[in-house]
């Protein structure tokens, strides 16, 4: 697929699709969308990604990037070091990548729990274990964010985008899993981010 703008495949219910969309809005990179489901639309997903996962980003050149990590790395490269949302090198980069690993790990636990409960015979013990691990991940993020506006104190970065999106996503699919009063710093970050235009332009979409 080629055109005048890159095309983002996926729905914004997916936190991984949404963080790509939000990032592109934050960086002022216009794009078009192909709204396909991460659950349904299997043939459409496999047409852009042989393993059938979204997000995928089709570039104007015709090249297709898959997986949000690879896409975000490309967007940072395109933005340049001064505007990139993950630090370029050093301790700050290592810390950002570690926080992102915790955030995406917690999100993955919630997504796996959601898939488990959709089975004909869900394992309640496994679901609770997955959600416990999800909560533990967000507890680490809460501790690191405490007393700060953003994770690096001063400016919105990918850690903030991913943590805020993940926090809302988990509460969206598993209400009450991350109670408001237990993680006030993350709650405030989520609310602050959701008020930003970049987030409003990538609002969560229902299945």
UniProtKB/TrEMBL annotation:
Residues covered by the GST N-terminal domain: 4-83
Identify the InterPro entries for this entry. Glutathione-S-Trfase_C_sf (IPR036282), Glutathione_S-Trfase_N (IPR004045), Thioredoxin-like_sf (IPR036249)
Which PANTHER family does the protein's record reference?
A: GLUTATHIONE S-TRANSFERASE GSTA, GLUTATHIONE S-TRANSFERASE-RELATED
Q: What is this protein called?
A: GST N-terminal domain-containing protein
Q: Tell me which species this is from.
A: Pseudaestuariivita atlantica
């Amino acid at each position: 697929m080629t055109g005048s703008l890159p095309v983002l495949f996926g729905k914004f219910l997916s936190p991984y699709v949404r963080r790509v969309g939000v990032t592109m809005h934050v960086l002022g990179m216009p794009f078009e969308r192909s709204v396909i489901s991460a659950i349904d639309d299997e043939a459409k997903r496999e047409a852009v990604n042989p393993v059938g996962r979204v997000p995928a980003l089709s570039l104007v050149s015709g090249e297709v990037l898959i997986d949000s990590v690879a896409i975000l790395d490309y967007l940072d490269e395109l933005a340049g070091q001064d505007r990139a949302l993950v630090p370029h090198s050093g301790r700050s980069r290592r810390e950002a990548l570690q926080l992102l690993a915790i955030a995406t790990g917690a999100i993955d636990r919630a997504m796996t729990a959601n898939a488990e409960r959709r089975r004909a015979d869900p394992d309640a013990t496994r679901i609770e274990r997955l959600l416990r691990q999800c909560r533990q991940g967000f507890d680490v993020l809460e501790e690191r964010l405490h007393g700060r506006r953003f994770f690096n104190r001063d400016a919105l970065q990918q850690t903030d985008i991913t943590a805020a999106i993940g926090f809302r996503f988990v509460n969206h699919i598993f209400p009450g899993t991350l109670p408001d009063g237990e993680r006030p710093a993350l709650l405030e970050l989520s609310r602050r981010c959701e008020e930003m235009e970049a987030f409003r332009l990538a609002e969560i979409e229902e299945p």
